[in-house]
Design brief:
It is built from 11 helices and no strands. The protein has about 280 residues and is an all-alpha fold. It has a single domain, classed as MetI-like fold, CATH 1.10.3720. It starts with 8 loop residues before the first helix and ends in a 6-residue tail after the last helix.
């Protein structure tokens, strides 16, 4: 069939059966589809929770219903308790986590740049990484008492060691021939750090930061429970004293949501930006 004898778009439209569209309909944006998929497990958990409270009728002090937990959140939000406590917790993890990153990454680069140091400090780092900040909490309370400094020390300790260890490990995995080639061209130590060691170790560094902040977040909640200086952890412990289990569940939900916010709003963009910045993945 020649080009002149081929049916045009108008003729094809007239010949198309009624009710058949021109093609696939509009699809949801990728971000919205991802949000829907991520929400499904939570909706399933909510359904199981609702079914359990409906079928078993447990006491409200044992397991409140989803509706009771939602009602309990209203006064906490209206009175400003929940926003204030959430803000206090976020400020603490931002300061303690930021300090751990500022100290941990240079320390890990220093240890990883020397084979003897890395071998000597590997058991040391593994030992203290296995001791969580919660294990140190009684000792820190003896040193600093029920103060804000206790919470910050626990966050710093818990977040620091994963960052140092992963940075050191990442640097040791960089092929030595890359640094040797740059030295042959006359590069100094600073060029080795910025052009070879840091880009090569960056994926491991980001993993260490994400692990460190995650562990620090857990230590923060525990520290707030014990010290009682406000924050979401304090809300949980205070609610336990009065058997306000609905408020405990509200606090647990806020803890999880705040971590999702931290991870999605700061840690994942940091990872994506850095690995793209250094050309480790394609945009």
């Amino acid at each position: 069939m020649s080009a002149r004898s081929q049916p045009g778009p108008a003729l094809l439209a007239r010949e198309r059966p009624a009710g058949v569209g021109p093609g696939p309909g509009p699809t949801l944006p990728a971000s919205l589809r991802a949000l829907v998929r991520s929400s499904l497990p939570f909706l399933l958990l909510l359904a199981v929770w609702w079914a359990a409270t409906t079928a078993l009728h447990p006491r409200a002090t044992v397991l409140p219903s989803p509706a009771a937990a939602a009602r309990a959140a209203g006064p906490l939000i209206a009175e400003g308790i929940l926003p204030d406590y959430a803000t206090a917790s976020l400020k603490r993890i931002a300061f303690g986590g930021g300090l751990a990153i500022a100290l941990g990454v240079p320390a890990g680069l220093l240890l990883g740049s020397n084979r003897l140091l890395s071998v000597a400090f590997t058991p040391f780092l593994k030992f203290f990484q296995s001791l969580s900040g919660i294990a140190w909490l009684p000792m820190v309370l003896v040193w600093f008492g029920f103060t804000e400094r206790t919470i910050q020390v626990v966050i710093l300790y818990t977040a620091l060691f994963p960052i140092v260890f992963n940075t050191m490990t990442g640097l040791r995995t960089v092929p030595p021939r890359l640094a040797d080639g740059l030295r042959a061209l006359g590069a100094g130590r600073w060029r080795l750090v910025t052009d070879v060691w840091l880009p090569g170790a960056l994926p491991s560094i980001i993993v260490g930061i994400r692990l460190g902040i995650a562990y620090g977040w857990r230590a923060l909640i525990a520290g707030e429970m014990v010290v009682g200086a406000g924050g979401i952890g304090f809300l949980l412990f205070q609610s336990r004293s009065f058997q306000q289990t609905a408020r405990i569940i509200d606090g647990m939900v806020v803890i999880g949501l705040l971590w999702i916010f931290l991870d999605a709003g700061f840690l994942r963009p940091l990872e994506r930006y850095t690995v793209e910045r250094w050309g480790l993945v394609q945009r």
